[in-house]
Design brief:
There is one protein chain. By secondary structure, this protein is α+β, with helices and mostly antiparallel strands. It has 2 domains: 1-79, no CATH class; 82-158. 42% of the residues lie in helices and 12% in strands. It is built from 6 helices and 5 strands; from the N terminus they run αβαββαααβαβ. The chain has a 3-stranded antiparallel beta sheet. The longest helix is centred in the N-terminal third of the chain and has 19 residues, at 6-24.
């Protein structure tokens, strides 16, 4: 029987809470937009954050205005946009039989390293929507139906 290391569990939970709090607060460093005559400039965070920081920051990161499309900008972010961040999928891995689990691990580890896979599985890191869909794709490849609520915990955070 496997023992639960409570101190390690508590450290992991504190780290996740710190990561979540950092994601919920306004970022200190942000990629700015300097595009002239943008129709979405009044509500876009990339433009609004620049207005608040243009007199403070010596060095800034900027979206290239020449490569941005007119109208619908792929980088457009506004207040109120949120994303669901997941933590861990150990419960789903434990429900798999041995052969499915081994296939699932090998499919996942083809694109990500072993350490990252185990961090993701154990809940040591927050999983972005892209990483969540990757885990679901890997499960589908091995014939496992990964349910919508298959992650251990879900958190709603702003999209900066």
């Amino acid at each position: 029987m496997r023992r639960i290391n409570r101190a390690r569990q508590e450290r992991m939970a504190r780290k996740i809470e710190r990561d979540l709090e950092a994601m919920r607060t306004k970022p200190l460093k942000y990629v700015y937009c300097l595009k002239e005559n943008c129709p979405q400039a009044e509500t876009c965070l990339h433009k609004l954050f620049f207005e608040g920081h243009k007199d403070k920051d010596r060095v800034i990161e900027v979206l290239n205005p020449y490569l941005q499309s007119e109208g619908n900008c792929v980088h457009y972010k506004t207040l109120g946009c949120t994303q669901m961040m997941a933590v861990g999928f150990m419960g789903q891995v434990c429900r798999m039989d041995d052969t499915t689990r081994k296939k699932f691990q090998s499919v996942c580890m083809k694109d990500i390293c072993k350490t990252v896979y185990y961090e993701m599985r154990a809940g040591n890191r927050l999983l972005s929507p892209t990483e969540q869909s990757y885990i679901r794709e890997c499960a589908t490849k091995v014939g496992w139906n990964f349910p919508a609520n298959g992650f251990d915990q879900m958190y709603e955070v702003p999209v900066w």
